[in-house]
Amino acid sequence: MQNSGLFEKIENNEIIELLKCIGIKTKVFKKNSYILRTSAKIDFLGVILEGNAVVSKTDLIGNTVIIEKLKTDDIFGHNIVCCETDKSPVNIIAKSNCEVLFLPFEKIVTPCEKLCPFHLRLIKNVMKMISKKNSILNDKIDIIAQKTIRDKILAFLQTYKKEEGIFSIPYSREEMAKFLCADRSALSRELSKMQDEGILRFKKNCFEILNY
To answer: Nearest-CA neighbor of 181 among 210, 208, 147?
Structure first.
């Protein structure tokens, strides 16, 4: 828990005091179980302590779009509790066994009577993590705003390419298609064309951009 960005620059004994003050709970979710369902009331900030999950939204005719994947140390719920609504617009499903930390949002952002410096540090960490998550969601808007599926693929892959060479993405083909709001067959065809044209090389979820 101390390794979480939520508790950055906060000592272990201070974390213990914080958790007593705030009132938290942890829960383990089995693979493929719901961590959060659409329309569920949410007044907390969630932190993935271990495992990974996927955030998705299903429209009225049953089409599912993947919004993002959550990994260890990622937060969720921040974009809901910061707004006037208290109902979740998304599903969050565990893609592996997950341990999740739940913290009451109001108690996080409201300093206690003691005005403990480590509580103030926690608030700064929360704001930092929210800012980072918003940046990731802005990247997605830029990706899906691309006009062609090829441009969407290249914009998507660029967000995971840190340097020259092979890199991996945390999505299966089906998940990638849902993230890009694309048909899976169309995605597979376009990837194959791009590989034939020498634009990229891939095997499963490992990619290398060759000419872009």
So the answer is: 147
Would the pTM of this model clear 0.85, i.e. be above it?
Answer: no
**pLDDT greater than 80 at residue 115:** no
Kindly give, in sequence order, each residue whose CB lies less than 8 Å from that of residue 142, ignoring residues fewer than 6 positions away.
155
Q: Residue 184 and residue 13: Cα distance in Å, rounded?
A: 49
Say which residue the tokens 């899976």 belong to: 184
Cα 198 to Cα 32: distance, rounded to the nearest angstrom: 37
Tell me what pLDDT residue 12 has.
Answer: 86
pLDDT at 1 > cutoff 70: no
For residue 10, give the DSSP letter. Answer: -
Residue 206 reports pLDDT greater than 90: yes
Buried b (16+ CB within 10 A) or exposed e, 87-108: ebebbbbbbeebbbbbbbbebb
Task: Mention every residue, 6+ apart, whose C-beta is less than 8 A from residue 198.
Answer: 210, 211
CA nearest 211: which of 196, 197, 199?
199
User: How far out from the chain centre does Cα 52 lie?
Assistant: 9
What number of other Cβ atoms are within 10 A of residue 70's Cβ? 26
